[in-house]
Amino acid sequence: MEQIPSDEEVRVASLADRDSVVAIADDVHHGTDSLPATYPYLVKGPSIRGYLYKKGGKTIAFLNTQLIDGGKTLLYSAARVSEEYRGSGVLGRFHRLIRNKYIGTPKLCYKAFAVFDIIMATIGQKLLKTNRHVTEKTLTTVELTSFDVSFKAATRFPELKMLCNDDMTSIMSCEDGRLRHLFPDGRIILDQKPYRLMAANVPLITNTCTHRVFLATDAKSPPLDTGLLSVPTVLSAGSYFACSKGTWYITDVYGEGSEEELRAHITWHLLRSADVGNGNVVFSIFHTRGLADFLTDLGKTFPLRTSSVSYKKPIVFEEEFCQRWNDPVTISHVNSSHPIV
Question: What whole-number distance in Å separates Cα of residue 79 and Cα of residue 90?
């Protein structure tokens, strides 16, 4: 049974706690921290909660949780700990206390989270003792500082189509075998968050918090008829938010496709990032392999420069515990532990 010191507490975060959460850490993710801009959506929304870890009345850690996959998975994200408490065991204890909060929840069987490769160098072996490595993606990042509007006016993408919610529902409802070229590990990873291929996840991945849009190659007239028409050969998603560097635009690309297809998707999102960007744009692509060669070539057209981001891969882990949680002894143990209000 997990215990915490008498001067520490864990409680649910509210909108009023934003400033104390933002103050936990400076310069997160090399100036591309999404938390200040998206905080309201980390503490309020469908099956969403934010949690604070406080010591002596001061907020020293934060963690966002969301029930996804139709309630089967507890997703952890946006974790941060004050520098002075990193490596002290606070984050691990925080994770366990929050996990215990959800024990006994109907249908819940998994806990999922993602870490960057630089974290794996220090605690990777420890994570693998209790969690299964599910998938990973490669990150390529550049910065865009200015833009030639005449190029945009002359650019057209007739082979690309922006997808609506009905399209995404049809895609996410397809049999796994038909989507293997897009999602070989059975997950769609968006902004480092893993979702199973389920129609129940569509309202979660099509939210407007980060202005996400989905783009497809070879998409037919909406909605996609999964019984008659092919699924897209390449799919991409683009989202953005304000950060201390200006705007961070994230492009998630699925499917190998041809060079022409991948180039069309990346170019479309680059153009959109220039439209929505506020000054400097940090432009990141997540794909199954590195796409630096495409960006080097596009650098002949766009004013791109290499970014200083040090992490290269988000790695997704999952822990299965439904059988253990159904154990009456385990549930009894947890129900008698320190409450989280």
Answer: 12
